[in-house]
Amino acid sequence: MDWNRYRFLSLWSLPAPPAAVYAALERAEDYPRWWRQVREVNRLDDVSGVVRIRSLLPYDITFTAREVRRDPVAGVLQIALSGDIEGWARWTVTADGPGTLARYEQVVDVNKPLLRRFAVPGRPLFRANHRLMMRAGRRGLAAYLQAV
């Protein structure tokens, strides 16, 4: 097992139409407005930017995100990640009854030296930290969508 490789899956049930959810998710520069763990998003150009995140544990993760797929018809947004983490992340947005299901998938290798050093003993904490971040993101997006 590669202790520095992570696969994540999060499912967000949201009380808003798919088009509204997709529109919010495609504007990464707005994430800090509704997702407090996304501390900064600085655009580099039309398809990439630098993102800094921090959840409960006292470390930041900084990475460059580059768009590789933007398909509003299929409801897919996918990025390539490089920096403290390397890999990919994808949102898939679909109708779910009167609302939306936003599926988040991520596969990354950790490059940040501190996290690599504590890969084995820290893995359960790192996974829990990610779950907390995702839970807060779902709540933040739901509130943001209701306010708009």
Q: What does the model show?
A:
- The chain has four helices and seven strands; from the N terminus they run E-H-H-E-E-E-E-E-E-H-H.
- The chain has a single domain (5-147), classed as Alpha-D-Glucose-1,6-Bisphosphate, Chain A, domain 4 (2-Layer Sandwich), CATH 3.30.530.20.
- The protein is globular, with a radius of gyration of 15 Å.
- By secondary structure, the chain is α+β, with helices and mostly antiparallel strands.
- The longest helix is centred in the last third of the chain and has 29 residues, at 119-147.
- It has a seven-stranded antiparallel sheet.
- The model has no long low-confidence stretch (mean pLDDT 97).
- A hairpin with a 4-residue loop joins strand 2 (38-43) and strand 3 (48-53).
Strand content: 35-45%
| Count of distinct structural domains | 1
* Largest sheet: number of strands, sense, barrel closure: 7 strands, antiparallel
- Which range best describes the helical content: under 10%, 10-25%, 25-40%, 40-55%, 55-70% or over 70%? 25-40%
CATH topology: Alpha-D-Glucose-1,6-Bisphosphate, Chain A, domain 4
Q: What secondary-structure arrangement, pairings included, does this model have?
A:
Layout: E1 5-14, H1 18-26, H2 31-34, E2 38-43, E3 48-53, E4 61-71, E5 76-83, E6 85-96, E7 99-110, H3 113-117, H4 119-147
Antiparallel strand pairs: 1-7, 2-3, 3-4, 4-5, 5-6, 6-7
Describe the structure using short key phrases.
alpha+beta; Alpha-D-Glucose-1,6-Bisphosphate, Chain A, domain 4; single chain; about 150 residues; 7-stranded antiparallel β-sheet; globular; 4 helices; about 30% helix
